[in-house]
Amino acid sequence: MTSTNQNIEQLLILCQSGNQRAQLEIYNRYNKAMYNTAIRIVKDSFKAEDIMQESFLTAFTKLKSLEDTNMFGAWLKRIVINNSIGYYNKTVKQNEVPLDNVIYKVEDDCGIVEPDQNNEKVKQILNVMKTLKPNYSLSLTLHLIEGYDYEEICEIMNISYANCRTLISRAKESLRKKLVLKAS
């Protein structure tokens, strides 16, 4: 086990006892990645930040239920994704129109934090993904960026396996067509 993992384990033990400094250190280590996960799903920077903070609060209050501290990052990410999907589903049901569809808004670059974020092709693909239908964008984000398999996406989006495969296939085809048009 690396010293970083030991350090995380020690911090999580301190967090369980309510140590706010340890909680702040955990927050500082994970907040950017969790924000980026939320923003890719909800597409609203303010709501993504709210979801990220709510997810940290949930994680800190339910930390005792985490059996393997080595899985904290994945566990926290799952909480963020579940909260983001919950918000997404709620807005779809309420048939809200996102503000950025109504007025022009300068967006921050809040895509992938990995080394590929400066890659022009990655930027182009992420920008084109934003123009897809919301369910296409969400399914591709979950599948290609977050790494969920079809079964997990079915559960998250509350659709059948066949619908999931069809949705992702159509989303990929729509993405390909838009990328070809953009390259022309």
* Broad structural category: mainly alpha
Proportion of strand residues: under 5%
Largest sheet: none
Q: Judging from the principal axes of the Cα atoms, what is the shape? A: elongated
How many angstroms does the end-to-end distance come to? 50 Å
List the secondary-structure elements in sequence, H or E: HHHHHHHHH
Low-confidence stretches: 99-113
> How many DSSP-defined strands?
0
DSSP summary: helix tally: 9
Mean pLDDT: 81
Rg from Cα: 18 Å
Helix content: over 70%
Write the layout of secondary structure elements.
Layout: H1 3-16, H2 20-42, H3 45-61, H4 72-94, H5 99-102, H6 120-130, H7 134-145, H8 150-157, H9 161-183
Structural key phrases:
184 residues; mainly alpha; 73% helix; elongated; transcription regulation; transcription
